[in-house]
Amino acid sequence: MDDTLLRRIAEALERLAPPVQVPPNLGTAGAFVWHPERLTLAPVPRVARVELALLQGIGQQKGILLENTQRFAAGLPSNNAMLWGARGMGKSSLVKAVHAQVNKERPDSLALIEIHREDIRTLPVLLNILRGQPRRCIILCDDLSFEREDADYKALKSVLDGGIEGRPENVLFYATSNRRHLMPRDMTENERAVAIHPGEAVEEKVSLSDRFGLWLGFHNGDQDTFFAMVEGYAVAYNLPVTTQALRAAAVEWSVTRGGRSGRVAWQFIQDIAGRLGVRLESGSNTL
Question: For residue 35, what pLDDT is reported?
Answer without folding.
Answer: 95
